[in-house]
TrEMBL record:
Residues 20-68 have a biased composition (Basic and acidic residues). Residues 1-10 have a biased composition (Basic residues). Keywords: ATP-binding, Helicase, Hydrolase, mRNA processing, mRNA splicing, Nucleotide-binding. It catalyses: ATP + H2O = ADP + phosphate + H(+). It is an enzyme of class 3 (hydrolase). This is RNA helicase. Residues 1-68 are annotated as: Disordered. The lineage of its organism: Eukaryota, Metazoa, Ecdysozoa, Arthropoda, Hexapoda.
Length: 888
DNA sequence: AAGATTCCG
C-alpha cells in the first residue's frame, strides 16, 4: 500500500477513529455475508445431490457428449458414433437441438470451402509473387549465423542481424566440439540410401536442407508390429485386461504402499502410463474412500477432466456423475455418492473458497503439474499448507519427467515414484546451419520428407494463424508445381480459432498411399493429439503472452521455445511408431540458446483475480506466500494496490465486504467491481451482458480475408456513438432478440462460438449476482448510468486526449492510441475509459468508451481529486463528425 | 489504419 502515488488521498490520522469504526463494521458485515454464502452452498449441495442421483446414466452420458459436440477437440469417430446413437434413440429435445447444430455446422462449412477455393484462385498470382520475394530474402540472409527472432525477418536489412561471436567461428569452438560429441551418425541426407529416389528428388526440388542427427529421444517400445497387434487385440480385450496391460499396473501395490507411508508423493510418469485413470481407482480399491471421503484429481483442461471421468466410470462400470464424476466451469457432474472426482485446476482453486481445508477429500492428485498453469501453481502453495494441519490428507503431485526433483524439494523432500511410459524412440535431427526463413524451411523440409521418406504423417509447429495460412498456400503452390510425380499430399491447418469442422478434418484417416501434413499452433503440443504422426518439424518458436506490471500492458510476442517444449513437440512423433523430429535450428542453439523450461504462467500474467481469491481465503501475507516460483514483486504490488483502490481491501490490507463479494466472480477485480457498481446505477442487466462480452476474448467479430469490406460494414452497424462497451452490448442484445440464432451471426459477421460462450458466461454471472444479493434490473434507455457503472470498475483505466494530439493515460502518463477497430477510432473524445492495454505494433487501448471527467469524482472520490481532472485548455475539442456514428 | 497462442474460472 505504501507505494501509492502521492497525488491520491491517504486517510489522515484525524479520520482514524471513525475509520476504525467503519472498518470494524465492514468486517462484521463481511463475515455475516460469508456466513450466508456458506449456508447457501450447503443447501445447494443438498439440492444437487438429490437431482443428480436421480439422473440416469444415459442422461449423464448425453450431457457429456453434447458438451463434447460443442468442443472442438473430440475425435470425429466418437462424434459420428454418438450422432448415430442419438438418431436411433429417443427423439427428445436434445436430439433436435443437436441436429440443428450439425445442420448449421454444415451450412457454415460448405460456405467456407467455397470461399477458400475462390480465395485460392484469386490469390494464386499473389502467392507466386510472394514466394519469389521470400526466396530472395532468404538468399540475402544466407550468411546469417545466428538463432534469431522471427519478427526480424521481413525487416530485410542485413545490418539488423548480429553475426556470430568470433569465438563461435573458430574451428575448435565449443560448439563444434559439443556437436561432434553428440553426433551419432554422419550427416543425414534424405534418400541417400536410394540413389534412384535421390536423383528423382533432386530433379523435383531445387533446394534442400542438410540435417544432422544428434540425440535420440529414448523410447521403450521397440517394434511397431508388436504394438499393431496389441492395438488390434485391444479392441477385443476386456476392460480388466486393458487395465492390466497399462505400464502403471505392475506398480500398483508398491504405489499404494508408498502412499500409505508418505503423506506427499511425487509421481513421475510419462503420458500413456495410465496414471491418470488408474491411480484413483487403485486408491479407491485400497480403501481410501471408505471413510466417506473423496479422491480428487485435477486436470489443466476441461476436455481431459470430462473424458477421463467418462473412461473411469466405464472401467468401474458405474454411472458417470454418481461414484465417478467431474466438475468444470458451467457444469458440475457429481453427486453426494461421488468418490472419484475429476476437475479442472481452476475449479479446485475456486472450490477452496467454500471448503478451505478440503475436508471432503482423503486424497488430492494434482495431475500434469509440469504444465505449471496459474491455477496449479497456486494450488501447490494452498495444498502444501493444508497437509501441515491435516495429516490424514494424502497428496500426489503428478508430473512428466524433469521437474520431479523440483517438486520434491518444494514439498519438503517428498519421495519420487517413477512410472515408465509407453513411447517409441524418436530420432532428432538438427539443421547444420541456422535457417534464415523458417517458414520457407518448413516448406522445403515437408517436401524433402515427402519425396524421400516412407509414408507417415507430418506435424509442423508454427506460431499463429497467419503463418499457418501462408505456409498452407506455399505448400499448395509447390506441390502443384511438382505435379503428379509425387504421391498426394494432404495439407491441413489447425488452430484454436479455426471452425470446428475444419479442425475435425485433421482426425480423418489418411487415404491409402497419401500423406497428411498438419500445420498447427502449439495447440497440438498438449491440447490435441493426432494419430499416426511419424514426422515432426519444429522451427522452435511460439507466441507467448506477457504482462508488464509497470505499465499494466499485455503483449503477445514470438519467442524461442524451451527445451521442455521442444522435447514435448518431438515426443509427438513417437506415439504410434518410431518417429523423426526435424528441428530447424542447430544443436548448438538447442543446447545454449533455449531455456530449460518455459517461464511459468504465474510470472507472466496479471494476478488481480488470483490475489483477490487468496485474500478471500484469509491469506494476508501474499508477499511471503509459499510459491514454487514466486511471481514478480511488482505484479503482486500492483494487484494489491488495485484491490485497495477498488475498495476490496481496507488500509490494513484486510478484505472488505465489497472484496468478499468481488471474490465470488471468476473475473478480473475491475470487472467484478463494475458488476457490483451496477447495483447502484440500476443497470445490472446491461452490465452483466457487457461483462460477459468482455470476457470472450475479442473474437466476436468475424473477418474473413475475402469479405473484409462486408464484415467491416456489418461491424459498423453495431457501433454506438459512446463507444465499444455499448457496441458489444448492442451485439449481445440483438443476438438475444434473434433468439440466439446461428443464422443471425452468419449474416452479421459475428462468431457464433464466441456468442455462445458469452451466453454461458452471462448465465453464470446472473447466478452469481443473485449470490452476492444484487437484483437484476434494466436501464437500457439510460446509457449514462451504464457508463458510470463501467467507470466505477475501471477508473484505473482512464486516458485523456492531450494537446499533442494523442491520448495519455492518467495513471502513468503514457502515450496510447485507440485501436483502429474501435467505434471511437475517428471520434477522439476528451476522456475515455479503456478495458485493456495491448502492445502489438503500437500501444493500443482496446474496448474504449467515452466518459465525463466529473464522473470520476462521483465513482472514485478516494482516488481522484478534482484538480487533476481539470481541463488545461478551455477550448472544446473539435470533434470529427464520424460517418460511422450509427446509434440505436 | 490493425491483425487472434493456448488454456482456465
Amino acid at each position: 500500500m505504501e507505494k501509492r502515488s502521492k497525488r491520491h488521498h491517504t486517510p489522515s490520522p484525524s479520520d482514524s477513529d471513525s475509520a476504525e469504526e467503519t472498518r470494524a463494521k465492514d468486517i462484521k458485515e463481511r463475515d455475516e455475508f460469508a456466513k450466508r454464502l456458506r449456508k447457501r452452498d450447503e443447501e445447494k449441495v443438498k439440492k444437487v445431490s438429490e437431482s443428480s442421483s436421480k439422473r440416469s446414466y444415459e442422461e449423464a452420458a448425453k450431457r457429456l457428449k453434447l458438451e463434447a459436440e460443442d468442443r472442438d477437440k473430440i475425435l470425429p469417430k466418437l462424434r459420428i458414433q454418438s450422432r448415430r446413437k442419438y438418431l436411433q434413440k429417443r427423439k427428445d429435445d436434445k436430439v433436435i437441438e443437436l441436429e440443428d447444430d450439425i445442420a448449421d455446422d454444415e451450412y457454415l462449412f460448405d460456405e467456407s470451402i467455397l470461399t477458400e477455393r475462390e480465395k485460392r484462385e484469386r490469390e494464386h498470382k499473389k502467392t507466386l509473387l510472394q514466394l519469389a520475394k521470400e526466396h530472395e530474402k532468404a538468399r540475402e540472409l544466407e550468411n546469417v549465423q545466428r538463432y534469431h527472432m522471427p519478427q526480424d525477418l521481413g525487416k530485410g536489412e542485413k545490418g539488423e542481424y548480429i553475426e556470430v561471436d568470433e569465438n563461435e567461428k573458430l574451428p575448435n569452438s565449443e560448439q563444434r566440439k559439443w556437436e561432434q560429441e553428440q553426433i551419432k551418425s554422419a550427416f543425414f541426407k534424405f534418400g541417400a540410401k536410394d540413389a534412384k529416389a535421390q536423383d528423382e528428388y533432386e530433379l523435383l526440388l531445387d533446394e534442400q536442407i542438410d540435417f544432422i542427427q544428434a540425440l535420440q529421444l529414448e523410447g521403450n517400445q521397440e517394434k511397431k508390429d508388436e504394438e499393431k497387434i496389441s492395438e488390434y487385440q485391444k479392441a477385443r480385450l476386456t476392460i480388466e485386461e486393458t487395465k492390466k496391460s497399462l505400464p502403471v499396473f505392475p506398480f500398483r501395490d508398491a504405489l499404494i504402499e508408498a502412499i500409505r507411508n508418505y503423506q506427499i508423493l511425487i509421481v513421475e510418469g510419462e503420458t500413456g502410463s495410465g496414471k491418470t485413470t488408474q491411480i484413483p481407482q487403485y486408491l479407491h480399491e485400497a480403501g481410501f474412500t471408505d471413510d466417506g471421503k473423496k479422491i480428487g484429481c485435477t486436470q489443466p483442461r476441461r476436455v481431459a477432466a470430462m473424458s477421463v471421468a467418462a473412461r473411469v466410470a466405464q472401467e468401474m462400470n458405474v454411472k458417470l456423475g454418481n461414484e465417478v464424476g467431474y466438475s468444470i466451469r458451467f457444469e458440475d457432474c457429481t453427486s453426494d455418492r461421488t468418490v472419484i472426482k475429476y476437475m479442472t485446476d481452476g475449479t479446485l482453486h475456486r472450490e477452496f473458497l467454500s471448503e478451505p481445508d478440503l475436508a471432503s477429500y482423503s486424497v488430492m492428485i494434482i495431475d500434469e503439474a509440469h504444465e505449471r498453469t496459474l491455477h496449479t501453481d497456486i494450488l501447490f502453495g494452498l495444498v502444501k499448507d493444508i497437509t501441515r494441519f491435516r495429516p490424514d490428507l494424502k497428496l500426489l503431485i503428478s508430473s512428466a519427467t524433469l521437474d520431479a526433483e523440483k517438486f520434491s524439494t518444494f514439498f519438503d523432500d517428498a519421495p519420487i515414484f517413477r512410472i515408465p511410459g509407453r513411447r517409441f524412440p524418436v530420432n532428432i535431427y538438427y539443421t547444420k546451419a541456422p535457417e534464415a526463413d523458417y517458414i520457407d524451411a518448413c516448406v522445403v523440409t515437408v517436401l524433402q520428407i515427402h519425396a524421400t521418406q516412407p509414408l507417415g504423417d507430418i506435424l509442423v509447429f508454427l506460431t499463429g494463424q497467419e503463418e499457418i495460412e501462408t505456409c498452407v498456400e506455399m505448400l499448395q503452390e509447390r506441390t502443384k508445381r511438382i505435379g503428379k510425380k509425387l504421391k498426394e499430399l494432404i495439407i491441413l491447418p489447425v488452430y484454436a480459432n479455426l471452425p470446428t469442422d475444419m479442425q475435425a478434418k485433421i482426425f480423418e484417416p489418411t487415404p491409402e498411399g497419401a500423406r497428411k501434413v498438419v500445420l498447427a499452433t502449439n495447440i497440438a503440443e498438449t491440447s490435441l493429439t493426432i494419430d499416426n504422426i511419424i514426422y515432426v518439424i519444429d522451427p522452435g518458436f511460439a507466441k507467448q503472452n506477457n504482462f508488464n506490471s509497470k505499465t499494466g500492458m499485455e503483449s503477445l510476442m514470438v519467442v524461442p521455445i524451451s527445451k521442455a517444449s521442444a522435447n514435448q513437440r518431438a515426443g509427438r512423433a513417437g506415439r504410434v511408431a518410431a518417429g523423426k523430429c526435424f528441428r530447424l535450428y542447430t544443436a548448438w542453439a538447442y543446447k545454449h540458446e533455449l531455456e530449460d523450461n518455459t517461464v511459468p504462467e504465474i510470472q507472466r500474467i496479471n494476478l488481480g483475480n488470483a490475489v483477490l481469491t487468496l485474500k478471500a481465503l484469509g491469506i494476508n501475507d501474499l508477499i511471503h506466500f509459499d510459491f514454487l516460483d514466486p511471481p514478480p514483486h511488482e505484479t503482486l504490488v500492483l494487484a494489491l494496490e488495485q484491490l485497495y483502490a477498488l475498495g476490496a481491501l481496507n488500509h490494513h490490507g484486510e478484505l472488505t465486504k465489497a472484496g468478499r463479494r468481488m471474490a465470488e466472480f471468476p473475473t478480473d477485480p475491475m470487472l467484478a467491481k463494475m458488476l457490483l457498481a451496477s447495483e447502484k446505477y440500476k443497470c445490472s442487466e446491461e452490465i452483466v451482458s457487457i461483462a460477459a462480452m468482455l470476457s470472450v476474448n475479442s473474437s466476436v467479430f468475424y473477418r474473413p480475408k475475402d469479405k473484409i469490406i462486408h464484415a467491416d460494414t456489418a461491424r459498423k452497424n453495431f457501433f454506438h456513438r459512446h463507444g465499444d462497451h455499448l457496441t458489444i452490448m448492442n451485439v449481445y442484445n440483438q443476438w438475444a432478440d434473434s433468439d440466439y440464432s446461428v443464422q443471425w451471426c452468419y449474416e452479421n459477421f459475428i462468431q457464433y462460438r464466441s456468442m455462445k460462450r458469452a451466453r454461458d458466461v452471462r448465465e453464470q454471472l446472473v447466478g452469481l449476482m443473485e449470490r452476492v444479493e444484487i437484483d437484476m434490473v434494466s436501464s437500457i434507455s439510460d446509457d449514462t448510468n451504464i457508463r458510470k457503472a463501467i467507470t466505477a470498475g475501471y477508473f484505473y483505466h482512464i486516458a485523456k486526449f492531450s494537446k499533442g494530439g494523442h491520448y495519455k493515460t492518467v495513471k502513468h502518463n503514457q502515450t496510447v492510441m485507440i485501436h483502429p477497430n474501435s467505434a471511437l477510432f475517428e471520434e477522439l473524445p476528451r476522456w475515455v475509459i479503456y478495458h485493456e492495454l495491448v502492445f502489438t505494433s503500437k500501444e493500443f487501448m482496446r474496448q474504449v468508451t467515452e466518459i465525463e471527467s466529473k464522473w470520476l469524482l462521483e465513482v472514485a472520490p478516494h482516488y481522484y481529486k478534482s484538480k487533476e481532472l481539470e481541463d488545461s485548455t478551455n477550448k472544446k475539442m473539435p470533434k470529427t463528425v464520424g460517418k460511422s456514428a450509427n446509434n440505436f
